[in-house]
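Morning!

As promised:
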Amino acid sequence: MIRLSTRDASFTRDFAALVDARRESDADVTRDVSNILRSVREEGDAALRAFTQKLDGHDLDDGGWSIPLADCAAAFDALDPVLRDALELAATRIRAYHEKQRPAGSDFTDEAGVRLGARWRPVDAAGIYVPGGRAAYPSTLLMNAIPAKVAGVERLVVVTPTPKGAINPLVLAAAHLAGADEVWRIGGAQAIAALAWGTDRIARVDVVTGPGNAWVAEAKRQVYGVVGIDMVAGPSEIIVVADGANDPDWIAADLLSQAEHDVTTQSILFTDSADFADSVVAAVERQLVELPTRDTARIAWEANGAIVLVDTLEQAMPLVDALAPEHVEIAVDDPQPLFDMMRHAGSAFLGRYTPEAIGDYVAGPNHVLPTGRRARFASGLGVTDFMKRTSFLQLDAAALAKLGPATVALAEAEGLPAHAQSVARRL
Amino acid sequence: MIRLSTRDASFTRDFAALVDARRESDADVTRDVSNILRSVREEGDAALRAFTQKLDGHDLDDGGWSIPLADCAAAFDALDPVLRDALELAATRIRAYHEKQRPAGSDFTDEAGVRLGARWRPVDAAGIYVPGGRAAYPSTLLMNAIPAKVAGVERLVVVTPTPKGAINPLVLAAAHLAGADEVWRIGGAQAIAALAWGTDRIARVDVVTGPGNAWVAEAKRQVYGVVGIDMVAGPSEIIVVADGANDPDWIAADLLSQAEHDVTTQSILFTDSADFADSVVAAVERQLVELPTRDTARIAWEANGAIVLVDTLEQAMPLVDALAPEHVEIAVDDPQPLFDMMRHAGSAFLGRYTPEAIGDYVAGPNHVLPTGRRARFASGLGVTDFMKRTSFLQLDAAALAKLGPATVALAEAEGLPAHAQSVARRL
């Protein structure tokens, strides 16, 4: 963990180093992934079976390639009622939030008599990747699948590895709740290849979303263009902008909630109170002792954590923009003026009673968000990631007479005479 | 050119071959592009200068790295008035269409007392690639730059190669009209690298759009995630759905308007009249003799063209969906019922007086569209490609009391105790 102050002589240089720090793996998996993709594309199910035997340690022909939807329903029914209610609350609120994202399209006729507009339609099929092992989060399945269903996607395919054949009942329950149409027991780059190109058993999809390890991320990058993908994801991060009137224990818990995800995650506190900074550092240390996930959280906090002391919180906001974080909390009584100053963040959590974790589960907005400074240009997952827009035009002879001559002039200037003639012949 | 009929015994197989035909280059430029990107990232302007000397045949230190904005204004003023008016009409109509795409965002408080919403902001800087040589189209510059300006992008950077130092005055004029802030005389993968990572002279941008050759396309693919990009572009295509009441010369001109772009482009006619199909074939042959771009157009038509005879035009629409074309014309008196049947296309041109070329220039919708069946999942370029969305949440103690317990239950079930504590401490 590093501590910086905007009053330090070296602040500009030190902060630039913080901004440019790369937390993403340098593991060069490009070639491995290319080979896996090529194998699945050429050999289909045989390659899927072989990779699953080798990497996940079970035989799909023995244990079954897919999980019956009835098993998903049974897993849901068998949930502890408290958990089932919590998942249902999450699904209901996520659905309500995303329904407001459905785009309206347009259809109008302008003063030249030209009808123009745009029409949105869902993709035919979407594939959702759900990691196995410790990162197998039912909440992530909901966050990916519900926007697809709200978009109107008719075929929703879940792929999830089942290492050593072990199936996570929480994931099955979430697949049931989200309305998955197929659940396949495959993972890794091989699963992404199956979704992109299809095999005899698994029909290809149009969009692939969902988190994964470096192999999955690289596989998605390589199939981008064959299918749509959500984004290139990297390690997660949180920035907390807090004044000295906060409870240090609350803010420490927020910083640790990011740190416990993975050793590559980053938690940064901006505050205008040096005393408060000290109290938060002490609270982090106290809480780490008790935290069941302390091994991961401590490494992440010590390696990537930072506290930046500013003269005023207003001074912090351009610095936050430079980091363009996935999550930003603005923990003050009146967060709106600071939020209005900010340009770049995936998701913002306003006020003292809005810990980031509330947005991970039940609040409604998506928790699949741009990381690694990509909030400069990227957005969280949404309904339109599972839809596409067809623009349209309709002219009659009178409208073409108005726009035709300019089109002919431009087409000829660009050296495209057949373009010009397709208009000129109709004039 | 191939002719198919849905009545052929082999139709299913033949049509599948048409759908799966790859027109994209297999040239493996991946490694070349990686090397160019690495050089520019490490050596900056020196690498840019060296690649430009080698590939474009001029020295940036001699002829100037950038084109002064005053030169762009002068090029605009020096245009033939007919052309200038045409460009201005195009810019005005493109701007009007795209202004309707500006997203509204949302901000509301639900029945649980949770404030939630989404806020859209432009990216800080966008880079537009404009090819040199024969594909240096001022219309493409307008189609890329105007949505960025409508989005509110404050820094709009144009890069365009100037082979042998030759500058295209039409491109400069369009850059002036579109409001470009910088115009750099660089191209190829090296220009994409400069936009993505920046150099001493050229500050990095957040989004890179615009067409280019295989090197440029691969470079964009490789920098995707470092910056946003518009899409992976491939060869262009048009489908014309036409009944026998059309003028064969009009439809032939439409097919050739696509074919003249490049030998990899594809033009396909679906019709329910065999006689009309014969007349179109004859008209294509007649027009090709006179067409200045006949060398390209003939190769494209003969290699990739197709005519598909259907019993009814309704039968054609699922076949069109399977091809998911960049452009589709529906040339009948009442196109709406057929258009309503269709799911996948980048842009639709409805009725007998809407040749595709009208959409390339002045109609208003964007001509940067998904190709190579990507209309299954991708949309044309638009204002939101230059913006990003920040979701936000604000809870008070009462709202947190309602959502908190479910969050704690889910976080504990997922094995994320610090997430649970960040909520539980506030309850």
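Chain B has a mean pLDDT of 95.

Hope this helps with the figure draft.
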